[in-house]
Amino acid sequence: MAMSKAGLKTKIETEMVAQGFVLVGAYAYGSKLAEAIANAVIDEITINARCNGADSNGDTHAAVEIV
């Protein structure tokens, strides 16, 4: 399953709300924080991911190692 910045942001926001963060309002910056975290995580994974083998279909991008 592919990861996306938007999908990760939504998951982070869901967790933040569950922990009591306020995401709406004049002084609520939770969504911006979630977006910044999601962007950084996806960028870091994309930059540091390395293919580490093949699956039974010969797909060499199936096994990814984070270094």
Strand order of the largest sheet: 1-2
Structure summary, number of beta strands:
2
Can you give the helix content as a percent range? 40-55%
Q: Cα distance, first to last residue?
A: 19 Å
Major sheet details: 2 strands, antiparallel
How many helix segments? 2
Shape: elongated
Q: What is the string of helix and strand elements? A: HHEE
Question: Measured on Cα atoms, how large is the radius of gyration?
Answer: 16 Å
**Total number of distinct structural domains:** 1
Average pLDDT: 83
Oligomerization status of the protein chains: single chain
Q: Unreliable segments (pLDDT under 50, ≥5 consecutive)?
A: none
Short synopsis of the structure:
The chain has 67 residues and is mostly helical. The chain has helices spanning 5-18, 30-48, and strands at residues 49-51, 64-66.
